[in-house]
Structure formats: C-alpha cells, structure tokens
Amino acid sequence: MRTASYVARSTGLRSFWLGFAAYLLPSFPIAYVWHLVLFEQKYHALQIYRDEPVIAFGLASMIIQGAIFSWLFPRVFAQGSGSFLKDGLLYGLGAGLLSWSFTTLAVAAKNVMVSVPDYVLLETAFTILQFAVVGPLIALAYRR
C-alpha cells in the first residue's frame, strides 16, 4: 500500500523531471536557432565568440540550469498559489533576470566585443524569449 509520503515524493519527482524537460527541451532549440541561425552573422560581427562553438558545453550548461530551475520552482511558489500562467510568467521574470545578470551583464562587462550595446540588446531579447516560454512550462509541470 502506498503511503502519503511515497505518493508526494513520486509526484514531486515526476514534477521535477517534467520541469527539467520544460526547461531543456525548448531552451536548446531556441538557443541554437537564435545564436547559430537567425543571428549568427550579428554575433560573428561582434567578434566575441569562437568560430566553432562547443555545442556540448552549451547543452551541459542547459542541463545544469534545467535541474536548478526545476528544483527551485516549488520552493518559490507554493502549490496552488495562482494560475500556472501567472506563476510561470513571474517565475520566468525572476529566473530570467538572474540568468540575464550572468549571461548578459557579466559577459558584457568582461569580454572584448565590437559593440556592447548590440550584444546586450541581442542577449536581452533572447533571454526574454527563452524565459517567457520556459517559465510557464515549468509552472505547468508543477501544476497538480
């Protein structure tokens, strides 16, 4: 017979993995298309990135981020605190702001590039798109 704590743990694990997938599955294609297809020439013109990016490092980074952002969601939003869309957009705003601080501001502060404003604009738009998508999806993964 299943105990309440077993059911809660298994439901929590299921939500964690769904939240992880909700981050990783859209993030990788969005990032790939954004950086290496749609705006490849703009990033190349900034002279900030290597000619051949190491895709495996980008994927590994997203795996780590997905685990952390999924684990963090239920610790930030109590179950049933609001609609998944509202919670997801709020979560996306907070998580996106955190991400933007180290993927945009910190990079712009320490890397040589042709145009800091162009880089900040590109990465800000990317971060807004990414977290507008993954925030609600992570919230949906934790919806009961």
UniProtKB/TrEMBL annotation:
The chain crosses the membrane at residues 12-34, 54-77, 89-108, 120-142. This is DUF1761 domain-containing protein. Keywords: Membrane, Transmembrane, Transmembrane helix. The keyword Transmembrane applies. The lineage of its organism: Bacteria, Pseudomonadati, Pseudomonadota, Alphaproteobacteria, Hyphomicrobiales.
